[in-house]
């Protein structure tokens, strides 16, 4: 049933990993959701269960092109997010962040919609300040392999703040730190999906570098709560605001935890560290806690177990076809 406070909400990138959970949660809250996606890294499977919902609509569209619709709120999550995927076609990655943001900001300006940008901890680059606080300007290599994503997202933040200053748009910028959970694309090369799939297949765990680099992993449900709280915060609250789990682990610790939780026979295999791979990452979430009353609830072990179960049941359900398809998919970039 739609409620009286129901809004028309556009989720760009709604068929992706995070976007599909966001669409689901907004529908549960009684809103009308338009998912706009070009299915570059997103999948129909992520949103199949929503297709028959009377207030859910899907539009295949690339946000690099103008979009004329009516809406009350816009979440911009459209952008490939894993290094493997965003480096596959780096020019398209930058276009998506820059041209795509301009179009959605132009749309927000015309229809007077509130607009939220899914920015990233990558705007801090390989940080010299630890943990990362929102006032830190970052340390990004503007000409490296990660720049299409990092600089694209930095430019998107600039655009959001200029539309805010120049046209008084109601903007929200969330800096999202590494988030994981069921529905992560098995082929996206991110560390959590890679390690779980390798562990379930008893294959070597590919640790890049010596595994001493750190990340802080946020479970998807926690992240979605943070995004919605930010969108619902007062007009004066533009962000940027860090959303992530402050528990920091080395990549080697993560590999060992996944081996333990899956009971796998896998061994760690060290591989070369990719260019500009950040050495340390942990969010300072005091701002999110103070302004939104938000902090993550799901511990790594619990979130990993849910994610492991997801991949296990996807392996088992369609054996042997699914097994082959994941093996094939992990060798192919991108989907
Ligand atoms: P994802 O790749 O699963 O989702 C991105 C979605 O955007 C996909 O459905 C893809 O098809 C769509 N898309 C890409 N380019 C598009 C375009 N030009 N037009 C329309 N749709 C397009 O990634 P995700 O993990 O769900 O990330 C969602 C957003 O959150 C991204 O903007 C990402 O940068 C940001 N983010 C994610 C994380 C994380 O750890 N998952 C961390 C920081 C930031
Ligand atoms: N735009 C859009 N939908 C709208 C309004 C604008 O996609 O409903 C796009 C349009 O392509 C435009 C961009 O947003 O180029 C920026 O709009 P803005 O009004 O800021 O600038 P201008 O139209 O002057 O270029
Ligand atoms: N990583 C790894 N093995 C893998 C995939 C990633 O050791 O199979 C490392 C990667 O080098 C980085 C960290 O894990 O230090 C997180 O990588 P991911 O691609 O998930 O996200 P990033 O934070 O780099 O965007």
Automatic annotation (TrEMBL):
SUPFAM superfamilies with a match to the protein in the record: NAD(P)-binding Rossmann-fold domains (SSF51735)
Membrane topology category: Single-pass type II membrane protein
EC number(s) on file: 4.1.1.35
Entry keyword set: Decarboxylase, Golgi apparatus, Lyase, Membrane, NAD, Signal-anchor, Transmembrane, Transmembrane helix
Pathway: Nucleotide-sugar biosynthesis; UDP-alpha-D-xylose biosynthesis; UDP-alpha-D-xylose from UDP-alpha-D-glucuronate: step 1/1
UniProt keyword annotation of Ion transport present: no
Compartments where found: Golgi apparatus, Golgi stack membrane
Required cofactor(s): NAD(+)
EC category: lyase
Coiled-coil annotated spans: none
NAD(P)-binding domain location: 10-306
Pfam families assigned: GDP_Man_Dehyd (PF16363)
Domain of life according to the entry: Bacteria
Similarity-based family: Belongs to the NAD(P)-dependent epimerase/dehydratase family. UDP-glucuronic acid decarboxylase subfamily.
Record-linked PANTHER family: UDP-GLUCURONIC ACID DECARBOXYLASE 1, UDP-GLUCURONIC ACID DECARBOXYLASE-RELATED
Protein name in UniProt: UDP-glucuronate decarboxylase
Organism field: Candidatus Nitronereus thalassa
Upper taxonomic lineage: Bacteria, Pseudomonadati, Nitrospirota, Nitrospiria, Nitrospirales
